[in-house]
Amino acid sequence: MTTMCDLYLRLSDGRDLATLDARERVLRAEAGRRGWEVHRVVIENDLTPNGTRNASAFKRRRIPLPNGKTAMRVVRPGFRSVLDDLAEGRVGALLTEDLDRVVRDPRDGEDLLDVVEERRATADSVSGSLRLTNGGTDAEVYGGSGVGNLGEVQAEDVPWHGLPASVALRVPPLGALWLRPA
Questions:
Q1: How far apart (Å, rounded) are the C-alpha atoms in residues 27 and 93?
Q2: Inter-residue contact 2 to 36 (CB < 8 Å)
Q3: Does 76 have pLDDT greater than 90?
Q4: H or E element that contains 29
Q5: What pTM value is reported for the model?
Q6: CB neighbour list of residue 161: distance below 8 Å, 6 or more residues apart
Q7: Residue 123 backbone phi and psi in degrees, to 5
Q8: What pLDDT is recorded for position 95?
Q9: Under DSSP, is residue 37 helix (H, G, I), strand (E, B) or coil?
């Protein structure tokens, strides 16, 4: 199954808007390398409406959170829409350039962590400064050994320990697996 992802770009200064195309190409290439399909590209513009100065990263309002509660947060509609996509299961991953592009306030990071944990999603950056995975990984794309079960294990009709079927598991180096009866 292909992972759907949102790409997140944030324009926070007077850089030429044409550079956004190049930045988006980098994210699209990385998503493709991982085998992810791009659901949408979200561009957050932190400039004031007239573009003359940077908008404040600390203007707060009471907004709804993905869990239904309300809280004071920096107003960033694009970021919030990405959290909604993750929370509603429209995407299973977020890919951005760097941690500081997506998290403007520590509470943004907490909200992202909550959604990733609850939905078993992934949030990652091409710089490596943000890496929240769906339960941990040893995948080569994350610099691991690549040893694993590709997310799924099927029982085989091979008797083992007095039971009619068994599974063969691949555990990554320095990994551990605890099993308990269902």
A1: 13
A2: yes
A3: no
A4: helix 19-34
A5: 0.68
A6: none
A7: -130, 125
A8: 95
A9: strand
Rounded CA separation 39/90 (Å): 8
CA 179 to CA 17: how far, in whole Å? 52
Nearest Cα neighbor of 92 from 10, 9, 2 is 2
- Tell me the residue type at 96: T
The CA–CA distances, whole Å, from 41 to 63, 108, 132 equal: 22, 19, 19
DSSP 129: S
Angstrom distance (rounded) from CA 34 to CA 142: 10
What burial class does residue 134 get, using C-beta atoms within 10 Å of its C-beta: 0-12 exposed, 13-18 middle, 19+ buried? middle
Q: Angle at the Cα of 18 (from 17 to 20), degrees rounded to 5?
A: 75
Q: Measure the CA–CA gap between 82 and 120, rounded to whole angstroms.
A: 15
Name residue 54's amino acid: N
Mean pLDDT of 17-27: 84
Q: Residue 53 above 90 pLDDT?
A: no
Calpha distance 106→81 (Å, rounded): 18
Most confident of 45-54, 96-105, 128-137, 138-147: 96-105
The mean of the pLDDT values for the chain is 80
